[in-house]
Specification:
With 384 residues, the protein is an alpha/beta fold. It is 60% helix and 14% strand. The strands form three sheets. It has a five-stranded mixed sheet, with helices on one face. Strands 1-9 form a two-stranded parallel ribbon. Strands 2-4 form a two-stranded antiparallel ribbon.
Length: 384
């Protein structure tokens, strides 16, 4: 029997009602056989006694069929009365679970099911109100971040130009101490510019304005370029950065090179920043006929089990990371995941605290822009 039917309310009600009808009949039959059969045979002729017993047996069978039909009809009526509102509530709960809070149930019953429906409507309304408030706050926050970041770009660019001019001697010769001070200022300026870019990217992602331009790229040349760019940072930290052996033949991938460069660059740079001097960071590239797989491994501080579930959320930084590197926005992995997801790919990681981390990025070779899947928002109205 189908497990779904076996565990249904109808089947359980049916068995209960059938048992309530059959058990008394069975007891009555046994009582009749034990008590009256011998007496009937003693009073009537054998032929008449047999005929009477057969008649009574047929009557018992007819009564059994009648009880069976009544039990089935009663089970159907009871289950319809109970399971219909449960089905409505189940469908409403599924929609709320999918993110659609525009749910309303028309309640006409005055029993316990009706009370449950009323409470459900109140809960859905409160969730919708909380969601609306959260969206409004999130929108205001994104607008504030976007405006603030845009306002910071111009003065930071001017600072960068001034620092570069001082280092180049455009404003006169500077001393060694002055050059060291300018170098520190340049590093701080670059950090602020990177922060502004991250804030703008995160705001554009939330607003759905993080544009993509897909084109065919050779992922081998593309990855080598990113590794070469990060080699300066790796050498400055005395870290060995390597690119694993790759195919001699081009591996063509349909992607947005600018956005993908941000994603892979973020992972590689994090691996370098959170690895102690003398450690290693390796980048490996694999491909098949369907997808491209990029593995970025390090021997760094790792990610604790407590921090791992939240690593791709906005503004989140691991507790051990903040002790090692005070700078950072906690937006890099959030931006990276959105970029990889937009390419139809997947990103995951395996990490052990104190032993390092390996990030795994898989992207379809024929990837196209994937829009975020929004939950259904059409209103759901039903009656109990």
């Amino acid at each position: 029997m189908n497990p779904k039917i076996r565990h249904s309310l109808f089947f359980r009600f049916f068995l209960t009602l059938l048992a309530l009808g059959i058990f008394p009949m069975g007891i009555a039959s046994l009582f009749f056989v034990a008590t009256y059969q011998s007496r009937i045979r003693a009073v009537l002729a054998p032929r008449d006694a047999t005929a009477l017993i057969e008649t009574i047996s047929i009557q018992f069978i007819l009564i059994f069929l009648f009880v069976f039909i009544i039990a089935s009809f009663a089970a159907i009526m009871v289950t319809r009365y109970i399971t219909r509102p449960l089905s409505v509530l189940t469908e409403a709960v599924k929609r709320i679970g999918a993110g659609n809070f525009k749910v309303h149930i028309t309640v006409s019953r005055k029993d316990e099911v009706g009370v449950l429906g009323t409470f459900f409507n109140e809960m859905a309304e409160r969730i919708q109100e909380a969601k609306d408030r959260q969206e409004e706050i999130s929108k205001l926050k994104s607008e504030f971040i976007s405006i603030a970041a845009h306002q910071l770009r111009t003065p930071l660019s001017i600072q960068k130009w001034v620092y570069q001019g001082i280092k180049d001697g455009d404003f006169g010769k500077i001393t060694k101490n002055q050059r060291e001070a300018v170098e520190k200022g340049t590093i701080a300026n670059e950090s602020m510019i990177r922060l502004v870019h991250n804030l703008l990217d995160a705001a554009r992602i939330e607003e759905g304005k993080f544009g993509y331009k897909f084109e065919e790229i050779d992922i081998i040349i593309f990855t080598k370029k990113i590794v070469d760019e990060k080699m300066i940072l790796a050498k400055a930290k005395n870290i060995t950065l390597t690119l694993g052996k790759v195919s001699d033949d081009p591996i063509i991938l349909n992607a947005d090179p600018d956005r993908l460069s941000i994603a892979i660059g973020n992972i590689t740079e994090n691996a370098i920043r959170y690895t102690a001097a003398g450690g290693t960071v390796s980048v490996r590239l694999e491909a098949d006929s369907v997808s491209v797989v990029l593995k970025i491994s390090d021997t760094g501080i790792g990610i604790s089990k407590e921090d791992q579930p939240r690593m791709f959320t906005r503004f989140y930084r691991g507790s051990n990371v903040m002790h090692m590197e005070t700078e950072g926005t906690g937006l890099g992995l959030f931006i990276t995941k959105n970029i990889i997801t937009a390419h139809g790919g997947e990103i995951s990681f395996h990490s052990e605290e104190g032993k390092g981390t390996t990030f795994l990025i898989r992207i379809p070779r024929a990837s196209t822009l994937k829009s975020p899947v929004n939950p259904p928002t059409e209103p759901f109205v039903a009656a109990l």
